[in-house]
């Protein structure tokens, strides 16, 4: 009888795991992606209504960022997304342009400001969701390596990756705080 109960418990856990991975997690992931799609569509609608100029630096930059984020996150791979974020963070011209755009948006306000805020909120949410597991895995690897005494050779490389991951997260959290809208996140 004990074997039947253990087998039933294992089969139940496998079914729950399968349903979670196949349906629940993919639905949650799609919800996050649809936020980016909705923001891109709202931006395009502003341009169609002539509320924002399609040739403006603000429109072109945000549309390029939204399209790149959608491309990089559609079939999510952690390392590809981290590369995208690193390039995004290290591109000084883009950061300077975004700061200028942010200053202009602060003055103008309106729907475009909400879209700009929503972009950072959505991307930060994706970053947080997808890197939580990676960060935990890196911490476990560091602890295991410490136990095996291989840490002196590998720790700097893994620590750099973990620090880079935390730096990207902190950068997005800083941006989100700077861009905190008066309304709830999109």
Q: Can you describe this structure?
A:
The structure is a single chain. This protein has 186 residues and is mainly alpha-helical. The protein has one domain (2-178). The protein is 86% helix and 0% strand. It contains six helices and no strands. It has helices at residues 2-48, 57-73, 78-90, 92-108, 111-148, 151-178. α3 (78-90) crosses α6 (151-178). The longest helix is centred in the first third of the chain and has 47 residues, at 2-48. The termini are far apart.
Structure summary:
With 186 residues, this protein is mainly α.
Average pLDDT works out at 76
The domain count comes to: 1
How many H/I helices? 6
Q: What's the number of extended β-strand segments?
A: 0
- Provide the β-strand percentage band: under 5%
Helical proportion?
Answer: over 70%
Helix-strand makeup class: mainly alpha
What distance separates the N and C termini?
52 Å
Largest sheet: none
Rg, please? 21 Å
Strand-and-helix sequence, N→C? HHHHHH
Low-pLDDT ranges? none
Shape: flat
Supply the key terms.
mainly alpha; 86% helix; 186 residues; single chain
Q: How does the SSE layout of this entry go?
A:
Blueprint: H1 2-48, H2 57-73, H3 78-90, H4 92-108, H5 111-148, H6 151-178
Helix pairs in contact: 1-2, 1-5, 2-5, 3-6, 5-6
């Amino acid at each position: 009888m004990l074997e039947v109960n253990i087998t039933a418990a294992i089969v139940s856990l496998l079914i729950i795991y399968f349903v979670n991975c196949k349906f629940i997690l993919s639905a949650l992931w799609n919800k996050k992606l649809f936020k980016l799609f909705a923001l891109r569509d709202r931006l395009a609608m502003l341009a169609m209504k002539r509320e924002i100029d399609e040739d403006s630096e603000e429109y072109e930059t945000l549309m390029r960022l939204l399209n790149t984020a959608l491309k990089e996150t559609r079939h999510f791979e952690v390392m590809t997304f981290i590369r995208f974020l690193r390039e995004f963070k290290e591109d000084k011209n883009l950061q300077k342009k975004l700061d200028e755009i942010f200053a202009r948006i602060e003055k103008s306000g309106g729907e475009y400001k909400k879209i700009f805020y929503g972009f950072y909120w959505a991307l930060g949410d994706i970053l947080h969701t997808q890197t939580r597991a990676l960060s935990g895995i890196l911490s476990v690897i560091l602890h295991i390596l410490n136990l095996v005494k291989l840490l002196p050779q590998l720790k700097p490389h893994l620590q750099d990756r973990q620090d880079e991951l935390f730096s990207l997260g902190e950068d997005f959290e800083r941006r989100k705080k700077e861009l905190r809208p008066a309304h709830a996140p999109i």
